[in-house]
Amino acid sequence: ECDTNPEMMRRTCPTSCSMCTPQCPKDQMLCPAWAEFGECDSNPQFAVTTCPVTCGACKSMCKDNNDHCSHWAEVGECTSNPAAMTKECPLSCGVCKAAESEGGFGYCNESNSTECKERVAKGDCTNDLTLMLECPQACGLCAHVCTDHDPQCSAWVKEEKCTKERAMMLQKCPSACGLCHALELEYNDVPCVDDDECPSWARAGQCDSNRPFMIAKCPISCGICHEPDHPNLEVARELKEKKERGGKDEL
């Protein structure tokens, strides 16, 4: 679909077509309480899909939006034109801190989020570079995005850790394990669709050994999303039960 129907897919599933890193939906009000009761670890699929920020799958991050940002920052534009530069070039201006494994994104951190909200409520964000650097989230310069957070994610996926160590992987490798795609499908109201060959691919172990491809092509058979009454749900159920038996077929 990314090739045959690019306009529709650009609007509904840009992440799956490698067009962007998605912003995460807001957590539900009860997420902090659920996290305290250990739901992020004991029920990771539900918790991380419902509470992706609280459970750590989505991080507060920012990214430069122009190829010239590095040069503009070098010639002093961050201080002479902070309002425009911190929005266009937050990474180069130091709003967020670069991280090698994040594909051009940097982490946003605030030392005192309560104080930041109070300062921003007074309207201090408009042209105050110091405040923007100290309170990037409150100033609206960052977004919670769904992306992998460890350079080992690809290797871990091949080791089937998305199923063997699900709680850890949904936090460290949400994109590689299919969470970002699941969020995209759910919040863009896109129906789950499998290719015709998905049941045979899934039964051959491709959901684990070739996960990025299968997430995009076979989300139902791999258990990423659930289309009511779809026959491939039975495939996902079979694979889940087989994993619970330790990968052994029934006698």
Automatic annotation (TrEMBL):
It comes from Haptolina ericina. Pfam families: ShK. Coiled coil: none annotated. This is ShKT domain-containing protein. PANTHER family: SHKT DOMAIN-CONTAINING PROTEIN (PTHR21724). It comes from the Eukaryota. Residues 62-96, 146-180, 192-225 form the ShKT domain.
